[in-house]
Structures
1.
Amino acid sequence: MDRTLVERAQAGDREAFSQLVKASTRRLFGVARLILRDPDRAEDAVQDALLLAWRDLRALRDPDAWEAWVRRLTVNACYKAAGRDQRRTRLEAEVRAAPNSTTIPDASTDLADREWVYAAIDRIGIDQRAVIVLHYYLDLPIKEVAAILDIPYGTAASRLHRGLEAMRTSMRGVPEPKIKTAAERAS
């Protein structure tokens, strides 16, 4: 990120802030969507984070830390959104996890595998999900994940380990999707 752009935004330049937002929104939305597993709530969380960023931008001490700072605001907004909708999220996860024998996947193996993994991510808690998303999807080291989440390194490593174990366990209980060939679908 261009340091001068951040400094201009800190001085109240709305156009500079708009450029920062345009450069960051797509990545932030991706993170929020993976954590919350709901595009509408993810969009709301990103908007909340960007509003906080505008409001508190002058408090950012190091303009070079813009990306990490706004990412942290987004993750925190995701936690707040998940807390507000915790009951709804549990119900949605149970409904999505329920096997439906009448559904025949009609997609490539990669897509089915990805959905299988996403379903497993849906079944773990948001604390573990946030660590997994930041570490595996954004390719951030655990040390940086811990800093973003404002938790000790050991806690981040523990959440990663427990989250992966929970995913493995849940994936053992749900059969891997079987993709029917064109000949099988025709019969």
2.
Amino acid sequence: METIIGLGKAGCAIAERFAQYPQYEVYKMDVGLKRSPRTYGLKPADSPEAHEQSVGSLKKFFKDVSGDILFVVGGSGAISGASLRILEQIKKCTIHVLYIHADYELLGETARLQQRTTFNVFQEYARSGAFQRLIVADNARLEEILGDLPIIGFYDKLNELVVPTIHMVNVLSRSDSIMDNISPPHDISRIISYGLVDFESGEENLFFPLDNVREKVYYYAQVKANAENTKTTYGIYPTQYDQDYVYCVAYSSRIQENNS
């Protein structure tokens, strides 16, 4: 995930959060943005179909993009309709999608329908192998993990949980461990979620409640009791932090329920 591409308001906000780390090249695409080498202003449109049709050639904009890509998008916005047209133009890359699942209780009927459609389509693309991984984070679940949050800066707090977690897993997965038994996940396990584990209690908090979890990878943690039929692996890594952190990545091959 050396390149981050954010689409829409939610996607761009998360992409910008990744920009704090030197490992990533960040691109942003949204209505109203001024065009630059790393930002692309899309034309205004009032429907997902119109957004899709408005996307022209991105060959020049993506001329330096290659390798691993993390494409970030919120599924409830009409602009998400442009996603597949955009991804089609970088299909030579290894595509990971970070899908932000909005709190359905806060959505109108049109946005709920858009989220349901986008989420289902993205899952099918992941299962087909068009995407390397579909990473799902649910805003309602993130809020539950963090507890009471202020209205001002609400989404910033959610992003402050998601982005550092993904970044640290990226860093650790490329680092030498003190001890581990990590092996590559099965190829069919392409729908995933990240999470945190309480070091003392072992309580897990995934960013999306995945069904049919068949594989889990823990970073830093000792593996305790886990669900039957779930393959678990772990890695222990040295850090400069003054406390222990435990991260978890859960994998599923099954289509997930939408809850919207």
3.
Amino acid sequence: MRATTKLRQLIAGNHTVMAGGAHDAMSAQIAEQIGFKLCVVTGAGTSVSRGYPDVGLLTGEEMVANARYIAEAVEIPVIVDADNGYGNAINVRRTVRAFEQAGVAGIHIEDQTWPKRCGHMFGKTLISTEEMCAKLRAAQEAKRDPDFVVIARCDAMLVNGLDDVLERCEAYLGAGADMLFAEMREDMDETRAFAERFRDRIPLHYNHSPSPMVPKLHVSEVEAMGFKTCCFYAQPIMAAAKAIREVMTEIYETGNAKTVQDRLVPLDDLWEIGGIAEVRELEKRYGS
């Protein structure tokens, strides 16, 4: 079954789908091995793992290349942050086809100007509703696989507030978005108002952000509001950064790695994340 069809089936189900975040193929493989049925690729994590903050410094081609590695590494469907589509509606057509060819099941495109900022940074600026709608129409017309999922992401909450989010998302729904994703802030009444407005009309995508400006909810609370996905984008790379800093600091200060050994994944387990057992079987089959 195509990854796009798997994703369509997941969001058509009766329960909220938990999605594990990834910034590279290894983190995606770990999410799949844990049991997540959906992987979401963080734009912020992809940027940080390449040495840049999430302020629009990575190109579309770099994001596509990373997505290709991830999609090839797992069997579960993958949704990727495609920033603002890397240009105007014409650019969005190429963006959609590039991500389709990379093997991902869907992307989200946001209504920010370029260069964009992380959804939980202040200082964002927005394109017009009309321009975003043109991008969404272009995305739908460009895709070759009808099951490929185009998610409209609205970043207006921190810029203009709830009323603009609702007005924009009505337009994005009309322009053909397959799902709606609005970046939220700490006011739960705003989140509930968004969900109540759209929950029975289109699948809703929830970013369970570790940002201090977003409430920390149990997935059951997200499901009760009517969201179809609950996505843990940034937690893996933030956990990795904390662990790397602590381990490397201790090694630097002590001059050896003896005291951190119990905090390391065994080497054989590290190979197994990447599927060493399958490679060994292929070696036997092909006599390599």
4.
Amino acid sequence: MKTNRLFSLLLIVTLLAISFTTVVAQEEEIPGVTDAIDATQPWEIAYVIKNTINPFWLNTMEGAESGEDFGVNVTVLAPQKPDNVEEQIRIIEDLIQQGVDGMVVTPLTPRAWPQPSRR
């Protein structure tokens, strides 16, 4: 029970940090930040986890879903086949196309993700 509360608190703090960063960026009019989020509606945050069979990720999923208590709509997604890198990448690409307000991602492995090009 205590670990569930810790996971919930950790995830909520992370989501609030993301929210604060977005608000500060909007107030300071940072170049390149043009999309404003309407504060009158709940924010849409996606939480992409590795799988739904590991008890650790199930606990974090419960914590993420408690974000609704703070006016944040949290959608938890995971690959149907546990730990499937390609499916997780597709999920994230779809979320980008949908225009969610923010994402929290637990990557399966850092080596599986495309590396940024170096110039």
